[in-house]
Amino acid sequence: MIQQISVYTENKKGALMTLVRTVSGAGVDMRAFVTNENGEFGTVRMLTDNDKLACAALSEAGYLTKQTRVLAVEVSDRVGGLAGLLSVVEAANLNIDYLYAAWDRTTGQPIIVLHTEDLSELESLLESRGYRSLK
């Protein structure tokens, strides 16, 4: 499992650019990134190469951040790769709270970032089915 940073920000012109500049200005590389809008505010979820530095820079800039453990799993880059992963999850009757995609820069393979109530159970299940999770 790995740490994800969630950042809450206003849903207004330029807000995302300001957030990204804050993180990159601290010398932090964002490895995965997804945004969700909720009316006047949005949530930005990201994986970085330095969570501590990213959170410090964001907090200093006035952002509210939260760190959450998530599971990042490599999937096949082929038609049905995600469907195969979700079939395993469904067969085990597990619920996924949310997921998003990224790329593993080392292997060039797609990565699916997942959050669920029982990450350890999901990680064990997927690894037993041959999926590789990032640590």
Overall description:
The chain has helices at residues 15-25, 51-60, 81-91, 119-128, and strands at residues 2-10, 30-38, 41-48, 64-74, 98-103, 110-115. 31% of the residues lie in helices and 36% in strands. The chain has 135 residues and is an alpha+beta fold. Strands 2-3-1-4-6-5 form a 6-stranded antiparallel β-sheet. The longest helix has 11 residues, at 15-25.
Quick description:
The protein has 135 residues and is of the alpha+beta class.
Q: What is the number of helical segments per DSSP (H or I, 4+ residues)?
A: 4
Strand order, biggest sheet?
Answer: 2-3-1-4-6-5
Domain count, please report it: 2
The gross shape turns out to be elongated
Provide the residue-averaged pLDDT: 93
Query: Helical amount among residues, as a percent range?
Result: 25-40%
Which class of the largest domain in CATH terms? Answer: Alpha Beta
